[in-house]
């Protein structure tokens, strides 16, 4: 199934997308208590009649993996990592497909990424069975203020600008398949292709990432892991190129759909 969040008078609900309709599955917190038990809670309504929002709970974690494509590490002038590079986002930065993101400074950059959504409580997973913890996958744009990101050794400020985390609907793992099969990850800025990568080129696979992270912390249903971006970011261009008001960024992961983000002042 393919799910998204949407707003109601009583709070955020989770809904299953079916064509141009959305089938309500109940409040977001109740859904992530046990996704396997989610059932229809109301009659379907037109997608056009609701306001979408991320399906990631505000209590969830957003765990980011940096430099997970060799070519991106090279364009950034950084060493190829020998263990996953982990940093964090706050859920407050997340926005849905179509929502605008205000430009942040003179070095606001794009990053097309695959997101992995955890479906069950997971601690100390091994790579052989780690995919059993995955609920599904989504498209993500890790918009980044490079000046803040590189100002210190910690990337937190540059990766947590308000409204800088566009996230798409979540496609369940049984429908999406396995990213090890090789899913194309692309980014277009104003219709121009700037990134084109493939999940088969990950330095660290999704199971390896889950195993690494879950050795140190418990992963809970609704937690989101974003898995790194391929080469082609604005920081790596010569001359460097960054986003400005009026630009439109579209990122897409094969089989999961696209997320389009207008950049505003």
From TrEMBL:
Report the SUPFAM superfamilies cross-referenced here. Answer: FAH (SSF56529)
Decide whether keyword Manganese is in the record.
no
Q: Molecular function terms in GO for this entry?
A: hydrolase activity
Keywords in UniProt for this one? Hydrolase, Metal-binding
What is this protein's record name? Fumarylacetoacetate hydrolase family protein
Q: Which residues form the Fumarylacetoacetase-like C-terminal domain?
A: 61-263
Xref: Gene3D superfamilies: Fumarylacetoacetase-like, C-terminal domain
Organism field: Pararhodobacter zhoushanensis
């Amino acid at each position: 199934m393919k799910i998204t969040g949407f707003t109601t008078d009583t709070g955020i609900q989770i809904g299953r997308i079916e064509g141009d309709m959305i089938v309500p599955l109940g409040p977001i917190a109740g859904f992530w208590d046990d996704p396997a038990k989610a059932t229809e809670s109301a009659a379907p309504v037109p997608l056009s009649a609701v306001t979408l929002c991320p399906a990631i709970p505000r209590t969830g974690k957003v765990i980011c993996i940096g430099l997970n494509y060799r070519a991106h590490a090279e364009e950034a002038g950084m060493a190829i990592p020998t263990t996953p590079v982990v940093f964090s986002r706050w859920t407050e930065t997340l926005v849905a497909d179509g929502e605008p993101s205000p430009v942040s400074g003179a070095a606001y950059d794009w990053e097309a990424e695959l997101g992995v959504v955890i479906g069950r409580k997971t601690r100390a997973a091994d790579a052989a069975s780690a995919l059993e913890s995955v609920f599904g996958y989504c498209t993500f744009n890790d918009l980044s203020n490079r000046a803040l990101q590189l100002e210190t050794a910690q990337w937190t400020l540059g990766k947590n600008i308000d409204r800088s985390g566009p996230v798409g609907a979540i496609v369940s793992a049984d429908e999406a398949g396995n990213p090890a099969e090789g899913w194309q990850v692309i980014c277009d800025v104003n219709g121009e292709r700037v990134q084109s990568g493939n999940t088969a080129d990950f330095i660290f696979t999704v199971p390896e990432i889950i195993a690494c992270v879950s050795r140190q912390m418990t992963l809970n249903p609704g937690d989101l892991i974003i898995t790194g971006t391929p080469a082609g970011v604005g920081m790596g261009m010569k001359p460097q190129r960054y986003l400005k008001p009026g630009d439109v960024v579209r990122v897409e992961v094969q089989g999961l759909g696209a997320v389009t983000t207008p950049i505003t002042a």
